[in-house]
Amino acid sequence: MDILSLRFFLRIAALGGVTAAAQDLSLSPASASARLVKLEETIGVRLFHRTTRAVSLTTDGEAFLPYAQEMIETLETGLSAVKGQDANAEGILRITMPGSFGRMYIIPALAKFHVRHPLVNLDLRLSDEVLDVIEGA
Question: Are 7 and 73 in the same domain?
Fold first, then answer.
């Protein structure tokens, strides 16, 4: 059982379709189908009911889902720990951008960013003028 097959299983369950999950993970349809068949063979149960219009979890698939999620989360946590990605970002982040872009896309995301990176101080400059970011620091 490989990581990509587990991720594929989780994406099928989340997106409700093999094709959508394959596209999301940049897999060819043939590769995606083979992965799913191999995963079901490895586990020894059918994970999805498949029709031409829909895919839904079997009872066994529903039972396996939380364990697959936990395996992926545990693996990602372990990989982050050894790669040093658990270190907290800190310092000043200066961002200059057009006002309309900042108001539309950046400002709504700031609260979530601050929760995730509380040690980062933002210097956000919104302006529709052409600025020299090197001299303007």
Answer: yes
User: What is the model's pTM?
Assistant: 0.59
Nearest partner of 53 among 28, 24, 16, judged by Cα: 16
Q: Has residue 7 been placed in a domain?
A: yes
| HEC profile of the chain | CCHHHHHHHHHHHHHCCHHHHHHHCCCCHHHHHHHHHHHHHHHCCCCEEECCCCEEECHHHHHHHHHHHHHHHHHHHHHHHHHCCCCCCCEEEEEEECHHHHHHHHHHHHHHHHHHCCCEEEEEEECCCCCCCCCCC
pLDDT digits (tens, 9 = 90+) for 3-61: 899 999 999 999 999 999 999 999 998 999 899 999 999 999 999 998 888 899 999 99
- Token pair listed for 46: 């059918």
Q: Tally the domains of the chain.
A: 2
One-letter identity of residue 90 = E
Q: Is the domain of 66 the same as that of 9?
A: yes
